[in-house]
Amino acid sequence: MKCDNCQRELTASEPVYRRRTRKKFGPYTRIAYNGSVCQSCNDEFDRHSYNKQSFSKYRCKICDRPVFWRAGRKVVKHMVCSDECAAKAHRANKTSTKRICENCNESFLAKRKDAKYCSPKCRQAARRSRQ
Ligand SMILES: [Zn+2]
Ligand SMILES: [Zn+2]
Ligand SMILES: [Zn+2]
C-alpha cells in the first residue's frame, strides 16, 4: 500500500496511522479526510498540530500490518490498514458466507462460519433423518 500523504510505497510490516489528514487538491485547496499515513508523515502532522493525538495499536485483519488507531475513538469492527484491504475484507466476507445447504442443496448466505443448513427447518429435518 501507499502512504496517503507522501505516496511512498510501504513495506509489508511498516505501521500505518489511521487519522484525519489533509489532501492537496491543487495549490490552495486542502480537504480533510480519513486516510492511512506512514510513521514519518504522522510525526510531521503532530508537529504542526497543537494537541498531539495518541494512538492505540491494532492489526490489519487482512495483511496483519500494525495499524495505529486514534485512542478513545470508536474501534471499527473490521480493522484494516487501507482502502485496499477494506475492499479485500469486503470481498472475503462475501465469498465465505455463501454455502450450500446440506439438506436441500440450495445455496444460502451463512451468517455463521460453521453454518451447514439454510434454515432451522432444514437443520431439524437433517437431524431427524439421522436418527
Ligand atoms: Zn508518508
Ligand atoms: Zn492491510
Ligand atoms: Zn436447506
Ends apart, CA distance between termini: 54 Å
Mean pLDDT: 85
Detail the poorly predicted runs: none
Main structural class: alpha+beta
**How much is the radius of gyration in Å?**
22 Å
Small ligands present: zinc ion
- Strand order, sheet with most strands: 2-1-4-3
- Beta-strand share of residues: 25-35%
Total number of beta strands: 6
Which SSEs are present, and which pair or pack?
Elements: E1 16-25, E2 29-37, H1 39-48, E3 55-59, E4 66-70, H2 83-96, E5 98-100, E6 107-109, H3 120-130
Residues 101, 103-104, 106, 117-119, 122 line the site of one zinc ion (ZN).
Overview features:
single chain, 131 residues, alpha+beta, 2 domains, four-stranded mixed beta sheet, two-stranded antiparallel sheet, 27% strand, elongated, binds zinc ion
Describe this structure in words.
With 131 residues, the chain is of the alpha+beta class. It folds into 2 domains: 80 residues, no CATH class; 33 residues, no CATH class. Helix content is 27%, strand content 27%. The chain has 3 helices and 6 strands; from the N terminus they run ββαββαββα. The strands form 2 sheets. A 4-stranded mixed sheet has the order 2-1-4-3. A two-stranded antiparallel ribbon has the order 5-6. The longest helix has 14 residues. The chain is elongated, with a radius of gyration of 22 Å. The model has no long low-confidence stretch (mean pLDDT 85).
